[in-house]
Amino acid sequence: MKKVYPFDKNLFFKINKLHKSYRFIIENYNKPFYLYSTEVIKFQYRNLRISFPGKVKFYYAQKSNPSKHILKTLSKMNAGCDTASLGEIKNALIADFKASEIMFSGPGKNKKELIFAIKNNVSLINVESFQELEEINGICIKENKIQKILLRINPHFDSNEKNKIIGGKGVSKFGVDIKEIPRIIKFINETKNIKLSGFHIFNSSQILNNKNIINNSKNVIELIKNICEKYFLNISIIDLGGGFGIPYSSEEKELDLKIISTGIKKIINDKKYKNFLKNIKLIFEPGRYISGMSGIYVTKVLYTKKSYNKNILITEGGINHLLRPALINQKHPIINLTALIEKRTKTESYKIAGPLCTALDEFDENCTLQESKPGDFLAILNAGAYGYTESMLQFLSHPLPEQKYLN
Ligand SMILES: Cc1ncc(COP(=O)(O)O)c(C=O)c1O
């Protein structure tokens, strides 16, 4: 049998020094809830910032968690913000990100969203199709504006993504294929209202292999350098995407930012790229790396039962509150807070399933926990990214989970 997850080594508990006193988490339980820690957000962003040279800038991918406390924390730390909808741009502005620190991505930006972004001087729009470029140009002409853009490219390589999150290489709704570049550049050269500041490639998510991130970054830089040389382009930005992952089990290892940063510095100083990169700013746009470990989801065990000898825990909240386990089979570490408080030692393997009328509603089919009882509280860890806002909150009309904050 697997071991119980060593929760005291998890960043959420470590940073907040919660490994000894966590009883308060469950004391006022009213319904399932998320609990976030902005200290973890600060820790993760600071780690990124101090590990990489100043030439590298980080834009927080708001889609991973748009909580206003998280956004405010990051705007105060001078991060940039990667947005993907009108709502996200507004969230970023409300959280005091300057328009000059906001970037707007996404394959399906509608006219209203583009008008808002352009009128509000969002610094970069990441263009994902020829028609979008035409739309932006039309708006800019009407508004008498010049808009800086990054052209998002759908390359022939990726960082070896495991789960289908972005989808890796090949047919993709994201970005434009390389063969489209000539007509796009011709169009940009013929208009006064669009400035091509650089290129953007985001081709993978949840990467835990340091080398894959370095190699992907090198592939991106190599590709962009070739494009710039071929079309005589002078650019100032390359958005390398990133896909920085976090460990979701005790067997997975955390990324080593020092190794990644050393790899990136090596590329920057490589004589093949040095001159080309001299005046180019590099961007990463991490979401999960910053917010993933900042949140836990807490729910109550309603019933325990056995089916064909398998132990099952039925919880009050399910994938209506945290969808990723069903969506892409993303297992999270799960702990039984009550059993830990009561220092129970006997362990069992459990299938942990929610209250919904679908077999999809399952957090784990084989989770080792201390012996668990009705009324126990489970915490699903590393639930800070792609949790609350990505879930099926209305399904079966259960109450929404609360969102609470430490401190
Ligand atoms: C364009 C873009 N940037 C950034 C991200 C954030 O990815 P992650 O949370 O893996 O860092 C995503 C995720 O879907 C994305 O689509």
How many helical elements? 14
CATH C-level name of the largest domain: Alpha Beta
Major beta-sheet overview = 8 strands, mixed
Helix percent reads: 25-40%
Spatial separation of the terminal alpha carbons: 37 Å
The CATH architecture of the largest domain would be: Alpha-Beta Barrel
Strand content: 15-25%
Number of strands: 17
Identify the overall geometry: elongated
Query: Mean pLDDT, as a whole number?
Result: 96
Could you say how many structural domains there are in total? 2
Within CATH, the superfamily of the largest domain carries the name: Alanine racemase
- The fold-level CATH name of the largest domain is TIM Barrel
Rounded Rg: 23 Å
What multimeric state do the chains show?
single chain
Q: What is the SS-derived class?
A: alpha/beta
Associated small molecules: pyridoxal-5'-phosphate
Unreliable spans: none
Describe the structure.
With 407 residues, the chain is α/β, with parallel strands linked by helices. It folds into two domains: 7-36 and 293-405, Lyase, Ornithine Decarboxylase, Chain A, domain 1, CATH 2.40.37.10; 106-284, TIM Barrel, CATH 3.20.20.10. It is 31% helix and 22% strand. The protein contains 14 helices and 17 strands. It has helices at 11-15, 24-27, 38-51, 68-76, 86-94, 111-119, 130-143, 181-190, 210-231, 257-269, 274-277, 288-291, 324-327, 337-341, and strands at residues 33-36, 56-61, 80-83, 102-104, 124-127, 147-154, 176-177, 194-200, 237-239, 281-284, 295-307, 310-315, 334-336, 347-353, 362-370, 377-380, 402-405. Strands 1, 11, 12, 13, 14, 15, 16 and 17 form an eight-stranded mixed β-sheet that branches. It has an eight-stranded parallel barrel with strand order 2-3-4-5-6-8-9-10, surrounded by five helices. Helix 9 (210-231) packs parallel to helix 10 (257-269). The longest helix is centred in the middle third of the chain and has 22 residues, at 210-231. The two termini are 37 Å apart. Pyridoxal-5'-phosphate (PLP) binds at residues 61, 63-64, 82, 105, 166, 202, 205-206, 242-244, 285-289, 385.
